Amino acid sequence: MTEIILDHYEINKATSALLPAYHNDYQTTVWEEDQRYYVKKTPLQLIKEACLEGGADYNGRRAAVTHKTGVNSKVPIPVLPHEQIYAFPTHSPKLYECHWLFYHHIKSIHRHPDAPSHTIITFIDSKELLLHVSYYTIEKQLQRTSYCMTRFTHYPSFS
Q: How many domains does the chain have?
């Protein structure tokens, strides 16, 4: 498979994960349903740019989620809420090893059978990602993101 290295990448409905890359030519590996891209910007830079494209800055979205949910750390982000694109970090976004996973692409999570500190993420396209993050942490992040989505979905009012 040819490496496609991009200066810029726009998060979209096909984006399933942003992985930090330990490479000289790029800083992020983007997983899409049927494609991999390699981007010169960091995962957090891509998240911040997508938030701005969606009409608000990252810090504003983060503050709104904290206000509505009470979550203060590893805050899920409504990246493009009008398109139902929500992402959550696996670690503090300040840490280099932070991966960003996109909620609607996750099919299941499983404990690694031999390493309790690892979790296997299965995406809806059946691809798997092994993360050095506990099952509990990923499960908690999924629950937080689900709650965040509920709080940011606008239902018609019944009056």
A: 1
